[in-house]
Amino acid sequence: MFVIVRHGNTFEPGELPRRIGARTDLPLTQGGVAQAEALGRHFADHGFHFARILVSPLLRTRQTAGTIAACLEASPAPESCDWLREIDHGPDEDMAESAVLARVGQAALDAWDSRAEPPPDWIVEAPMRLAAWRALFAEPRDGPTLIVTSNGAARFALLARPELLARPELLARPELLARPELLAAISGTASLKLPTGGYGTILRDANGGLSVPVWGRRP
Fold it and tell me: From CA 34, how far away is CA 71, in angstroms rounded?
């Protein structure tokens, strides 16, 4: 099992939200720490024991992972993975959402959230991210893996394998399975986003098949 967590809040209530990515290394707010603690308690209450913890190098994700791990017994030390780093928003990095909307338009932001199609001049490195998720899902592992990352990086987990987005009736259509960006548009998944302080789970069966029982849940 793979449990994918998005870090907690980095903006205080009432603070103007901005697009923060790889070049803006903000710490968690007090509310963000509380979200991480809630995740840790939730996982502890449900008997989760992680054999491995992977984390982005950014402070907000390391703080979230450390807080979760502190709530669990005998947690392994988090491993930093650069491929889990948040994307670079280019000219929109650290800009107010209103300014980003004015530059790229709502349709571009909707395409990013529903199909991971980046707006102009964002640096996403999609092939690298997809390859890294696929390699992770294929690794032989004993026990669940916790992955703590950011919104831009987490969405590529769902695009890495076609069965993670396809409804059962779509699995018989190879022309669609070969186009994950099309699957994202027709699978019924309204958004690839995880909320701050939220998580999703990806299960791997004995034959290596993957499924997504949970996506976007907050404790």
Answer: 12
Q: Which two tokens stand for residue 204?
A: 């791997």
Pairing of strands 2-6, 199-204: antiparallel
Edge to edge, the sheet with strand 145-149 lists 79-80, 52-55, 145-149, 2-6, 199-204, 210-217
What pLDDT, on the 0 to 100 scale, is given for residue 82? 96
pLDDT digits (tens, 9 = 90+) for 137-169: 999 878 899 999 999 999 999 889 877 875 444
DSSP state of 20: -
Strands (E), 126-192: 145-149
Question: How far apart (Å, rounded) are the C-alpha atoms in residues 34 and 11?
Answer: 13
CB atoms within 10 A of CB 175: 7
